[in-house]
Amino acid sequence: MTTEAPPRALPRRESRKVAVSSSISPTKFGLMLVAPVAILLLATVVYPVLYSLYLSVQRVDPLTGAKSFAGLVNYSRALSDKATWWSLLITVYYTACVTLVSTGVALGSALILRERFRGRAVLVALIALPWSMSTYAAAVLWRYVYSPQYGLLAGLAERLGMDGVDFLSKSTVVPALAVVHAWQFAPLGAYFLLATLQSVPEDQYRLAKIDGMGVWLRFRHITMPYVRLPLAIFLVLVAGQAATAFDLIYFLTSGGPGNASRTLTFSVYETFFQNQEFGKGAAQSWILLILIIAVTSFYYFLIVTPRRSRGERKNT
């Protein structure tokens, strides 16, 4: 009787870590990932800005395209033109109206949506609709709303005994445009502020109610410190977007009636493309850029700087 030998145990293979060698360092690999975006930004943002600065100091012949150095002549022509100052005044007025209305609507909507009530989810979805619409669609919609013949607001005014109300007249066209702009842009601020309000502890509101604090004191001492920084960011966004608004004004009023809604952006469009005064139009665009920087810096120092100073006093 033969006995089979037990099977020989196979030698265990030691697991070894294989070193993966690469000739590309992490820094180079990161630059390779960023390079397409950087090239796109250079082509679509940096180059047009620098080229407009170049044009603003050039005298350009619209027929031949020949350029010659003009120094600050184009800026002098733009600043000595009464139409430029009128457009600048309309731009400041329009930006102030849009900022005030958008901030009020956004903050009010965020405070309402923070509460728990039936139908809240539906209301959250409906508020996003104006923001999702294209500017052209919003302009066409509000053109019918503002129409003095068959518009919705004209019908309501007629029911109230006011005939012939034209919301796009010279005296009311800028606030009317600001309402449309705020109607479309305020939902972004509402969601922005709502995300911050949901992080406020409920215990603070309960303790404040026990201490007898009213609605205004609770908003001032509890809500406002949380939303101050997001509100400043939204103010900068809406102010810059309003100061450079063009498509809504073009589709809804085309700068009219007359020149009542002729903002500086619309003036740059007319000077550059219609009148083909390329140097003067580029100079006007840089004047607008300086205005935007001044407005956003004002918002920053108005809202963010007091917050920082209070934090430094607390630390000391």
TrEMBL record:
<feature type="transmembrane region" description="Helical">
    <location>
        <begin position="173"/>
        <end position="197"/>
    </location>
</feature>
<feature type="transmembrane region" description="Helical">
    <location>
        <begin position="122"/>
        <end position="145"/>
    </location>
</feature>
<dbReference type="GO" id="GO:0055085">
    <property type="term" value="P:transmembrane transport"/>
</dbReference>
<feature type="domain" description="ABC transmembrane type-1">
    <location>
        <begin position="88"/>
        <end position="299"/>
    </location>
</feature>
<feature type="transmembrane region" description="Helical">
    <location>
        <begin position="286"/>
        <end position="304"/>
    </location>
</feature>
<keyword id="KW-0472">Membrane</keyword>
<keyword id="KW-1003">Cell membrane</keyword>
<feature type="transmembrane region" description="Helical">
    <location>
        <begin position="31"/>
        <end position="54"/>
    </location>
</feature>
<dbReference type="InterPro" id="IPR000515">
    <property type="entry name" value="MetI-like"/>
</dbReference>
<keyword id="KW-0813">Transport</keyword>
<dbReference type="InterPro" id="IPR051393">
    <property type="entry name" value="ABC_transporter_permease"/>
</dbReference>
<feature type="transmembrane region" description="Helical">
    <location>
        <begin position="85"/>
        <end position="113"/>
    </location>
</feature>
<dbReference type="GO" id="GO:0005886">
    <property type="term" value="C:plasma membrane"/>
</dbReference>
<protein>
    <submittedName>
        <fullName>Sugar ABC transporter permease</fullName>
    </submittedName>
</protein>
<dbReference type="InterPro" id="IPR035906">
    <property type="entry name" value="MetI-like_sf"/>
</dbReference>
<dbReference type="Pfam" id="PF00528">
    <property type="entry name" value="BPD_transp_1"/>
</dbReference>
<keyword id="KW-0812">Transmembrane</keyword>
<keyword id="KW-1133">Transmembrane helix</keyword>
<feature type="transmembrane region" description="Helical">
    <location>
        <begin position="229"/>
        <end position="252"/>
    </location>
</feature>
<comment type="similarity">
    <text>Belongs to the binding-protein-dependent transport system permease family.</text>
</comment>
